Structure formats: C-alpha cells, structure tokens
Amino acid sequence: MRRLTRTVAAAALATALALVSACSGDADSGDGSSGGGGALEKVTYLTSFGNFGRDSYAWVAKEKGFFKEAGFDVEIKAGQGTNAVIGTIVGGQAQFGPIDLTGGLLQVGNGQAKDFVAVAAIQQRTMAGIATVEGKGIASPKDLEGKKLADTQGSVVRNLFPTYARMAGVDASKVTWVNGQAQDLMGMLGTGTVDGIGQFVVGQPTIETVTRQKAVMLPYSEVMQDLYGNVLITSAKIAKEKPEMVKRFTAALMKGLDYALTNPQEAGNLLKKNVDAAIPAAAAAELQLMTGYVRSSNSGTQLGTLDSGRVAKSIAILQGAGALKQNITPDQIIDFSLVPKA
Questions:
Q1: Least C-beta-crowded within 10 Å: which of 27, 119, 146, 153?
Q2: Using 50, 70 and 90 to split pLDDT, how confident is the model at 224?
Q3: Are 218 and 130 in contact (CB under 8 A)?
Q4: Contacts of 90 (CB under 8 A, 6+ apart)
C-alpha cells in the first residue's frame, strides 16, 4: 500500500509539473491586458532621485514578488531628478518613474516637456526642501541669502526655488546654486563644499548618518501647503495604448509602497540587498518620516489618489508667483482615468 501511494503521488507530481511547464511556455499576448499566465513583460522603472529609503518601495515590490504577480519583469535604475526622469520616459528608455508633481507642472507650463502623464500620487504633500547642518548659520529661509547651495540640474527643489524664495521673502539673486550628482550631495554638505543642498525632508536621517552632524531642514511645504509630492508617471503613448497594463503596474507599486511603510526595517534591508551603498537603518527612518506625507486625510484609505481641485490650486500658486509662462489644466498632466480611486 505504501508503494502504491508513492507511485500515485509521483504520477500526480509529474502531471502537475507538465501543466506548469505548458503554462509557462505560453506566449504573452503583448497587449498588456492580463497580469498572469504568460511571459513576464519587461519594464524599466526609474527611482525619483538616487537609491535612498524614500524610493525603496520599488525594490520591495520587486523582492516581494508584487511586480511578478502583476506580470512584470522590472529593472530598477536610479533616477536623477524630475527633468531627467521625464526625459528618459518620454524618450522610451524607461516606462515608469516618479517625479515631483510641481516640477512636472513647471516643465509643462513653461513648454519644456510634454508627452507624459501622471497616473498615481506617491506623496500627498510635497517633500521638497533645503537641507543644511548646524553651524552653517541657516535657521530660516532668509538665512539662505549669501549662501551656496547644491543640487542636480533640473531638480524640483532647484526649479521651484524662485517661487519658494518669493513666497518666503528671500532674495533669490543672493543665493548661489552649483551642480552636483544625487549620490554626491550629502558628501558635499558634510565636507563643507556647500552650505546646503536640495533634498526631500525625509532625507534627514541619511544626512545625519553621512555627515555625522545635526541636520537642519527647511521644508517648502511650510510656505506652499497645497502642493503634492512625487507622482508616478508614464509616457502619454503607453497610457493611451496600454491603460490596463498601467493600472496593473500602478497597483503592484502601490502594494510595495504600502508594505514598505508598514515594514520599514525590512524595506531598508531589501534596499541594502540590491544597493551596496544603502544604509538600512537610515532607509527605515526615511520611510517612517515619509508615512505622514503618503497617508493623508485628503486621500482616504486608498494610496495613490489625486484630486483635480488640489492640482488646480497648485497651478494657481505657481501662476500667482509668475512661475508659469502658459496656462495649464490638471488634465494636461494627469490621466484621471488611470488614477486609483479614493
């Protein structure tokens, strides 16, 4: 009887393996309409700015199998800020990536970019700001006058600075900006090469780890409260031709975001697994700080929502500050048919 049982079990296993093999050999339909059963669809995803804890949710979605479950084989590459992410996606070298929504509005409203759309919010409030360390004589926005700041070319912090300065009572002409790569900025601050850097406010723990000094943060949200933070974008072409694929990818990424916020230490470890330079404790601390920007009373229980009225207010703020050369509407930058519903 024992021998018969083993024989039956072996036969059943062989049958199951044959079925799995047959299913895995099916060709993908290529229309982006289904999330499973066929070959995985290759996708390139850009982070917003380097590989810090604030972007670790993409690595979580990959490592926990959320992308694979949705039908994707995702390659994650480090982004270099809003302008670069937009250009790479519009150029077809990547399919998805987060940008700061305000930076995107500035690009579109000044005729510097087109052919991309936002499909989900990552943060409900902007995290853009200026970071420095104690001893630099910077405790308020006005103290930035006469100082040297560094950031990547085309970053949202840098692009938005004239508007922030105007609203905060700062003479922007008295502030000097120099160029730096995302991965070098904190080192430049730590060595005293510059007085401050453009940085998301959740970068505070990483700044303190790298510089071994107490960080001082000047959040843009203190003077511009209606602005969203990062949003997920794709090309207008992909959004039009593969809407169901976009929805599947967005859902998988939001699942990674939710998991990372709930399990920040594990997310930091997963980032370290993929990025040698990552510091798990600092990454976890960034995620803990980011939670209040992602989960908002405005968004309800569903992550990723975007409100047309709030986006219109953001546009009005930029127009009022003279930061936009042409009138734009929320629908020009957001495909609300693809955005998660509250």
A1: 27
A2: confident
A3: yes
A4: 113, 114, 115, 116, 235
Please state, as a whole number, how many other Cβ atoms lie within 10 Å of the Cβ of residue 99.
28
Residues 6+ apart with CB under 8 A from 323: 106, 109, 110, 160, 162, 163
> What is the distance, to the nearest Å, from the Cα of residue 28 to the centroid of all Cα atoms in its chain?
29
Which of 32, 198, 79 is closest to 129 using CA atoms? 198
Q: Are 315 and 98 in contact (CB under 8 A)?
A: no
Q: Counting runs of H as helices and runs of E as strands, what totals does the chain give?
A: 13, 12
Q: Which two tokens stand for residue 151?
A: 């950031």
Distance (Å) of CA 82 to CA 9, 103, 148, 155, 242: 56, 6, 22, 6, 23
**Burial level of 276, CB count in 10 A (0-12/13-18/19+)?**
exposed
| DSSP, res 341 | P
- Res 30: pLDDT: 41
Instruction: Confirm whether pTM is higher than 0.85.
Output: no
What average pLDDT does this structure show over 162-174?
Answer: 94
Alpha-carbon torsion angle 96, 222, 145, 52, nearest 10: -30
Angle between helices 56-63 and 264-274 (to 10 degrees): 80
Per-residue model confidence as pLDDT tens digits over 20-65:
333 333 333 344 444 555 799 999 999 998 899 999 999 999 999 9
